[in-house]
From TrEMBL:
GO terms for cellular component: cell outer membrane. Pfam families: Plug, TonB_dep_Rec_b-barrel. Residues 477-880 form the TonB-dependent receptor-like beta-barrel domain. The lineage of its organism: Bacteria, Pseudomonadati, Pseudomonadota, Betaproteobacteria, Nitrosomonadales. This is Vitamin B12 transporter BtuB.
Length: 920
């Protein structure tokens, strides 16, 4: 399989225009600082696998955002990191919300293990997510190129660089005025994107000794609703997919002692089978008379008690792409003090306004919400005596109801991000020529979320439902009364502050590099630098400032926390013999909250002949625990479902067991852990770049990342399952039990066991002349292994090719393209490929169920014409063949999508993009 996929990749000449840095052609010999090294050097001398994507290549790909660009990078993981993958209201401390926020995730190791830089320096994390940089804050219109280091780099940059580094290089030293406008419109409607930008620059550094640059851009992503695409369909029972919910627009009775249908019931002619759900339309075989409603597929879910329930396709009707408005500004001034010194000032700011909408409330009148039951004598009392002989009309009705009148639950998030920088850079001509730079920067991200329509205050909602004036059993053509609508409107929590988070980063850094000694094979080059940072974060939870909101996603809050980091690093490049260079780097980081860590790196580059370069590296890395993982407030709550005390009931809840210890429901403790250590990694890469002819070059790099002390959020159930490895996590009360008198199960964040990821990157590029200029290229990643375990005593679980609710480890991904240029015209045909993987298995798969999700292949075509003076026109057809996302049998439960997967596919379908750029 592996050999076949690699051969298939190499045979595709329609391949990415982002080959290796080594293969980039340059006409000017200039020393540059390439991502992954502090030593300025000629570009072709690099030894690390760095992928470079230029501004021109980005435009040819037809992408309209940084998020879309990252989804075309084969080394980027296939996870829930984009705007379509915000799967629900469980914000949590590990994957806090991504409303308007998207993240990079190199190697699939998590957004917090990918370091994102702008012009070589760090950015603040997102104000709400708190553990990763928001790609939405990157000024897309100002990008000059993107450098992607597909190797660990903690020895150079410190924390977070385990999966790799993405460095966004912005435009500099521009003269003139450029205006650009773009529209990206879908064929089926919905999800359109628009952007306008203006770039202006004044001054020539060499002549005027200054340059001032300004970029202002605005873009809008319009909403794409689930009902706008046929593939967004959570009711396909013949394929193993159906909603697992009885919360329907026409309410379903819920089994509960003391209510009309009791805890369970029987029906004539069904023997001793008992049921605990009842819907009038199901008894009448008419669930489908209500839009998006269907018969509950009890056989598919192994739930015979739900035989007389209806279901609602909440996943199929969910919003596929959230609407986003974004304004960004970049200002940069460079002043040439002398031929050896430049002073640089930079201010970058953005505002992102996003609106995420979830499905309507499923109101459940059980548990803590018994007061919402429909009252006896209410005008809309749903009497099922004709179908349930034991129905007691003298008791209230417990039910599950989808409150369509409440509206889709909406969260509106505004994020303001900025970075201000003042720095100097240049050359020191003392004991040779030394390149240096030094800067002071302040960056931050402040996010605030407020509730929109669909969220309701608990007390007035309870009163409205208990009054009986709201009718949960509307038939087609019926509506709520004006009085009922007024009661629901009065209960609306629209405008209630959900939360606000603020992250700040203050950094003072500098480095110097140059040549120190001449060897027969060349000069020894060195670099040294320092990094002083102060990071802070605070999070305010709106649930503490107003009356309770029914099932709102409030998160624990904590006051402002901060830490200080001091780091020193050095790097040396030694030419051993002609063509062979070895580079070593070492960095020491001292954190005020957990201690210090030292991380080395060694790499080599060997060019035995002009046409062949071997390269490789070994390095160690780390990721510091996030503020959430360290300081999230500790909370206790009853764990769902009964458990057996593993010590007092060692045989489990078997027939005849003592239920007082074999069926208990103790509290579980979750929260931060201030004793966390950083995650550690050991990783290597080894490969080659070959150019057997002037018209072709290709590269192959094998890589492996092994992590230990991985920060993991244990559940109480996992503690019980592994209690012999962590007996101290079973905290017994004064009575010696886990339940009552102070007993509980301690879970939350721990340093768990590690994982190992291994794969191969392949790149190839062709360049030839025939009636014009042709180029073809491909960039692909093959995942050989991705295995993980929670504890050392656990066996490894292999994740490659298997379904997962967070990150998918598909075996192979690539982006490929072929371009033709002649005169003022150029055309580019490109392809995105994601390999197939195993589907989530339904509880009771139907006959003929297909366990493999199809591969996803889309094509695009871009044409550019620059024959008009000062004007460039381009047009792109995206998803040229209008390929729908492949079917998957999972629904919108802790995983994105219903019948499709936004981690893999673009829901927009065929789209047409036009762009015009005019330069004054």
């Amino acid at each position: 399989m592996r050999l076949r996929l690699l051969c298939h990749a190499v045979s595709l000449a329609c391949i990415t225009g982002s080959g290796s840095v080594w293969a980039q052609t340059t006409t000017k010999v200039e020393k540059l600082e390439i991502t992954g090294s502090s030593i300025k050097r000629i570009q072709e001398e690099g030894a690390l696998p760095v992928q470079v994507i230029t501004r021109q290549e980005i435009e040819k790909r037809g992408v309209t955002s940084v998020e879309q660009l990252l989804m075309q990078i084969s080394a980027n993981g296939t996870g829930a990191d984009n705007l379509s993958s915000n799967v629900g209201i469980q914000l949590g401390t590990t994957d806090r919300n991504n409303n308007g926020n998207s993240s990079a995730n190199l190697r699939g190791l998590g957004a917090s293990s990918t370091l994102v830089l702008m012009n070589g320096r760090r950015l603040s994390t997102h104000g709400a997510k708190g553990n990763a940089v928001d790609l939405s804050s990157i000024p897309f219109a100002a990008i000059e190129r993107v450098e992607i280091l597909k190797d660990g780099a903690s020895a150079i940059y410190g924390t977070d660089a385990i999966g790799g580094v993405i460095n966004f290089i912005l435009r500099k030293d521009y003269e003139g005025v450029q205006v650009s406008a773009m529209a990206d419109m879908t064929e089926e409607g919905g999800g359109n994107v628009y952007r306008g930008s203006i770039t202006a620059g004044w001054g020539n550094l060499d002549k005027d000794r200054f340059n001032i640059l300004g970029v202002l851009s605005f873009d809008r992503q319009e909403i794409l609703n689930g009902g706008d695409r046929k593939f967004s369909n959570g009711y396909q029972p013949e394929r193993g997919l159906s909603p697992d919910t009885a919360g329907t627009p026409y309410a379903t009775h819920t089994g509960l002692a003391g209510t009309a249908i009791g805890a369970s019931f029987t029906t004539p002619g069904t023997g001793s089978q008992t049921y605990n759900r009842a819907n009038l339309l199901s008894f009448q075989n008419n669930c489908g008379s209500i839009p998006e409603q269907s018969q509950y597929e009890f056989g598919l879910w192994n739930a015979p008690g739900f035989r007389y329930a209806c279901a609602y396709d909440y996943g199929g009707s969910a919003v596929l792409i959230q609407p986003v408005d974004r304004t960004q500004i970049v200002t940069r001034g460079t002043f040439k003090v002398s031929n050896e010194m430049n002073i640089i000032g930079e201010i970058i700011a953005s505002r992102t306004e996003a609106r995420k909408q979830f499905e309507e409330y499923q109101i459940t009148t059980t548990g803590d919400f018994l007061g919402m039951r429909y009252p006896v004598g209410g005008p809309y009392y749903n009497n099922l005596s004709a179908y349930i002989p034991s129905f007691n009309a003298n008791l209230p009705i417990a039910y599950r109801w989808r409150c369509m009148e409440c509206g889709g639950r909406t969260i509106e998030t505004t994020t303001d991000a900025y970075r201000a920088l003042i720095g100097i850079e240049g050359q020191l001509n003392v004991w040779g020529s030394w390149d240096y730079k030094m800067g002071f920067s302040q960056s931050g991200s402040e996010a605030e979320s407020v509730l929109g329509s669909g969220y309701m205050y608990t007390a007035p909602l309870t009163a409205a439902l208990a009054s009986g004036q709201v009718n949960p059993w509307l038939l087609p053509g019926q509506t709520q009364t004006a009085a009922a609508l007024q009661m629901l409107q009065a209960a609306s929590a629209a405008g209630q502050r959900l939360f606000g988070g603020e992250a700040e980063l203050t950094q003072f850094d500098g480095n110097i590099s140059g040549e120190v000694y001449q060897l027969p094979a060349g000069a020894i080059s060195v670099a040294a630098g320092f990094d002083y940072r102060k990071e802070s974060y605070k999070f305010d939870d709106g649930s503490r400032t107003s009356q309770p909101v029914y099932q709102a996603p409030f998160d624990p809050q904590f006051p402002k926390v901060e830490r200080t980091i001091k780091a020193f690093y050095g790097e040396i490049a030694i030419p051993i013999i002609k063509g062979l260079e070895v580079t070593g780097a070492l960095r020491y980081d001292d954190y005020s909250d957990f201690g210090s860590t030292t991380n080395p790196k060694v790499s080599f580059r060997w060019q035995p002949i002009k046409e062949l370069v071997f390269r490789g590296s070994y390095n160690e890395g780390f990721r510091a625990p996030s503020f959430f993982q360290l300081y999230t407030a500790t909370t206790e709550s009853p764990i769902p479902g009964n458990i057996a005390d593993p010590v007092l009931c060692p045989n489990g809840n078997v027939p005849g067991a003592d239920l007082s210890v074999c069926a208990i429901r103790p509290n579980g403790q979750q929260g931060g852990n201030p004793n966390l250590k950083p995650e550690l990694s050991k990783q290597y890469s080894i490969g080659f770049v070959a150019s057997p002819a002037s018209w072709v070059d290709f590269s192959v790099d094998l890589w492996q990342v092994e992590r230990e002390d991985r920060i993991y959020e244990l559940t109480p159930q996992q503690v019980i399952a592994n209690y012999t490895s962590m007996p101290e996590n079973l905290v017994r009360g004064a009575n010696g039990r886990l339940d009552g008198q102070g007993g509980y199960i301690r879970a939350g964040f721990v340093n768990a066991a590690g994982d190992l990821t291994k794969g191969t990157d392949v790149g190839i590029r062709f360049n030839w002349q025939w009636e014009g200029r042709w180029t073809a290229s491909m960039d692909g990643t093959y995942i050989d292994r991705a295995r993980t375990r929670v504890l050392e005593s656990n066996p490894y679980t292999e994740l490659v090719g298997a379904w997962n609710n967070r990150d998918l480890w598909v075996r192979w991904k690539h982006f490929a393209q072929v371009s033709y240029e002649r005169g003022p015209w150029s055309f580019t045909l490109f392809q995105n490929y994601t390999h197939s993987y195993d589907d989530q298995r339904p509880s009771n798969p139907p006959a003929g169920w297909n366990s493999e999700i199809d591969k996803y292949i889309t094509y695009g075509l871009t044409g550019v014409y620059n024959g008009f003076k000062n004007l460039t026109l381009s047009a792109t057809i995206k998803n040229l063949l209008d390929e729908d996302p492949p079917f998957t049998a999972h629904n919108l439960d802790f995983t994105p999508g219903a019948g499709w997967d936004p981690r893999v596919a673009d829901p927009r379908g065929r789209a047409y993009m036009v762009r015009a750029t005019y330069t004054f």
